[in-house]
């Protein structure tokens, strides 16, 4: 599902709300999650999962095309860990 499909689904399920309002709500939620991660925080949505930031140390990589060694700088990357309820629901849906 992409963002526009999510907005369309929410609009269909909530006919009393305007699509532009739902677009603002979805954008606000994503923006707040992004801000929290930018500041090094963590966002936990009970039953869904948790977003956090993982720090990767600098390392020596390899250019796959030329085989040459390349210095890869340290970086921070977003990380998502699915919650127990989400894992169970996905597992149950895959079994049926």
How are the SSEs ordered, and which strands pair?
Layout (H helix, E strand, L loop, with lengths): L2 H11 L5 H20 L4 E3 L3 E8 L2 E4 L6 E4 L2 E8 L1 H12 L1
Antiparallel strand pairs: 1-2, 2-5, 3-4
Helix pairs in contact: 1-2
Helical amount: 40-55%
Q: Tell me the CATH architecture.
A: Irregular
Write down how many β-strands occur, each being a DSSP E stretch of 2 or more residues.
Answer: 5
What is the number of helical segments per DSSP (H or I, 4+ residues)? Answer: 3
Strand portion, in percent? 25-35%
Measured on Cα atoms, how large is the radius of gyration?
A: 19 Å
What would you call the structural class?
alpha+beta
Major sheet, described briefly? Answer: 3 strands, antiparallel
Mean pLDDT score, rounded? 95
Low-pLDDT ranges: none
Tell me the overall shape. Answer: extended
Number of domains: 1
**Strand order in the largest sheet:** 1-2-5
**Which homologous superfamily in CATH is the superfamily?**
IHF-like DNA-binding proteins
């Amino acid at each position: 599902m992409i963002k526009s499909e999510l907005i369309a689904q929410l609009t269909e399920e909530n006919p009393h709300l305007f699509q532009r309002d739902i677009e603002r709500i979805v954008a606000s939620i994503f923006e707040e999650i992004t801000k929290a991660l930018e500041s090094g925080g963590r966002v936990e949505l009970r039953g869904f999962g948790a977003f956090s930031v993982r720090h990767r140390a600098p390392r020596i990589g390899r250019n796959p095309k030329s085989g040459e060694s390349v210095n890869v700088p340290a970086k921070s990357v977003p990380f998502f860990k699915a919650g127990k309820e989400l894992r169970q629901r996905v597992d149950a849906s895959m079994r049926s």
